[in-house]
Amino acid sequence: MIRWTRSGRIAPGKTIPAVKWAKEITEFVNKKYKLQVTVYMDSFGEVGTIRWFADYEDLAALEKVMNQLWPDPEYFEKVNQAADLFVPGYFDRVMRAF
Fold this sequence. Notes:
Elements: E1 2-9, H1 15-33, E2 38-41, E3 49-56, H2 59-69, H3 73-80, E4 91-96
Antiparallel strand pairs: 1-3, 1-4, 2-3
């Protein structure tokens, strides 16, 4: 089992629209690509951080999804809508279950 996560820090004063957008982009990729991505916001620790999570059978399954997203102009149009909602730069992590 592989777990992919992406985290982004909400820009100052943008919490409500960032949370709304995070839910919308999650629903979009789940519906269009038949995924099970979940989204959370930190309540303690790095407050103001939104995190997406998805589990995959193996690295090949993760790569397949990424290869579908990267050339999709509709996906990137939606991503670009959030340009001012987050501090520049996302952080991705891939973990393996033992």
